[in-house]
């Protein structure tokens, strides 16, 4: 083979390579690579023939051959890239015009809905929303709320302790109620205040139809000049009517919480058996359902937060979110709210 024949052959290889490359087919590129650039590939063999040429010609022709080799490689890479993309597309969707797979949509949990509804009720009355930590200091959960270290009222709120100390060397604990948010807010923000806060609370209790070691509360309080029990009664009555309808009534009876004086239990007229059902399972025939703890903020608490109780007074209330959710959805066992059985949740 002379120089011109070699060049002629190179040009034929080039033509046949590119015409083969333009044929469709996913494996085309791989096969061409072997056929032209492999150990016994056409271009490789032609380059090997150069060994019989004189050195000057070998250099010039070798440069031509290597340039073509680079051209083949680039073309093969480009083709592999394109067919790779086609392959990926073919695997994930045969028909891109079909509608997508149905994607199950979640909903808000009934406890979340109930808490949001309660918060909304108070926001309409001008309350703003605050938040507080779940891991609390004894100071905020008990002491500043007028629970003396050895007061028996602490027994009603036995809790879980965390293996960590606060700044005063006391064990941190899981908050037993949302009332510490009152203290934190009053200490940080100057009155007048109208604040609510909803969230998880913890108590060392056995689980049954109406108790759990973790549940949810909604706290609310106001601090201003001349706030009295009358403001508390009006506020809660307006809230209850908003939640359960204008015919719902509230009844206050005396109760004890260390951080309020006077303190009250607040009951709402039974929404299931308007007053008459002796066998009503919800109110047990009494016509009333106890829903909230409330009262006028104790002067000691006002003082503990740095205000003069002669100048500033307030009211506070706390409600169980589970209790409200059970009434709103007609659930008789609180555990239903924690089991997360989709067959139940979908009905609510
Ligand atoms: N924190 C009280 C409890 O958990 C409820 C409450 C709040 C009572 C505010 C009065 C005022 O039991």
3D architecture notes:
41% of the residues lie in helices and 20% in strands. It is α+β, with helices and mostly antiparallel strands and 348 residues long. The protein folds into 2 domains: 3-91; 110-345, Bira Bifunctional Protein, Domain 2 (BirA Bifunctional Protein, domain 2). A hairpin with a 5-residue loop joins β3 (161-165) and β4 (171-174). α1 runs parallel beside α4, α2 runs antiparallel to α4 and α5 crosses α10. The longest helix has 38 residues, at 55-92. The chain is elongated and about 115 Å long. The termini are far apart. The site of phenylalanine has 10 residues, from β9 and β10.
Question: Keywords, please?
Answer:
348 residues, alpha+beta, BirA Bifunctional Protein, domain 2, seven-stranded mixed β-sheet, three-stranded antiparallel β-sheet, 10 strands, elongated, binds phenylalanine
What Rg, in angstroms, do the CA atoms define?
39 Å
Give me the number of helical elements. Answer: 12
Secondary-structure arrangement, i.e. CATH architecture of the largest domain: 2-Layer Sandwich
Order of helices and strands: HHHHHEEHEEHEEHEEEHEHHH
Say which molecules are bound, naming each kind only once: phenylalanine
Poorly predicted runs: none
Largest sheet descriptor? 7 strands, mixed
CATH superfamily of the largest domain: Bira Bifunctional Protein, Domain 2
Number of domains: 2
Structural class call reads alpha+beta
Q: Approximately what portion of the residues adopt beta-strand conformation? A: 15-25%
Distance between the termini: 89 Å
The average pLDDT score comes to 91
Report the strand count.
10
CATH class of the largest domain, please? Answer: Alpha Beta
- Helicity level, as a percent range? 40-55%
């Amino acid at each position: 083979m002379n120089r011109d024949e070699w060049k002629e052959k190179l040009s034929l290889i080039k033509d046949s390579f590119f015409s083969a490359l333009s044929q469709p087919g996913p494996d085309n590129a791989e096969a061409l690579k072997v056929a032209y650039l492999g150990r016994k590939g056409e271009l490789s063999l032609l380059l090997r023939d150069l060994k019989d040429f004189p050195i000057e010609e070998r250099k010039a022709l070798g440069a031509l051959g290597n340039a073509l080799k680079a051209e083949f490689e680039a073309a093969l890479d480009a083709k592999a890239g394109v067919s790779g993309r086609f392959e990926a597309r073919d695997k994930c969707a045969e028909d891109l015009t079909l509608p997508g797979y149905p994607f199950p949509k979640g909903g808000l949990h009934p406890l979340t809905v109930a808490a949001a509804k309660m918060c909304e009720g108070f926001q309409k009355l001008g309350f703003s929303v605050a938040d507080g930590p779940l891991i609390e200091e004894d100071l905020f959960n008990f002491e500043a709320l007028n629970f003396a270290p050895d007061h028996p009222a602490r027994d009603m709120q036995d809790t879980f302790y965390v293996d960590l100390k606060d700044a005063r060397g006391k064990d941190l604990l899981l908050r037993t109620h949302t009332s510490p948010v009152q203290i934190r807010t009053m200490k940080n923000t100057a009155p007048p205040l109208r604040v609510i806060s909803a969230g998880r609370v913890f108590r060392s209790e056995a689980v049954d139809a109406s108790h759990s070691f973790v549940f949810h509360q909604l706290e609310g309080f106001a601090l201003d000049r001349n706030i009295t029990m009358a403001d508390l009664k009006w506020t809660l009555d307006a809230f209850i009517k908003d939640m359960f309808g204008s015919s719902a009534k509230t009844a206050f009876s005396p109760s004890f919480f260390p951080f309020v004086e006077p303190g009250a239990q607040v009951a709402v007229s039974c929404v299931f058996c308007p007053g008459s059902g002796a066998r009503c399972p919800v109110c047990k025939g009494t016509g009333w359902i106890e829903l909230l703890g409330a009262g006028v903020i104790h002067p000691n608490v006002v003082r503990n937060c740095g205000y003069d109780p002669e100048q500033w007074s307030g009211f506070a209330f706390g409600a169980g979110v589970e209790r409200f959710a059970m009434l709103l959805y007609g659930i008789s066992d609180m555990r239903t709210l924690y089991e997360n059985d989709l067959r139940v949740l979908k009905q609510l």
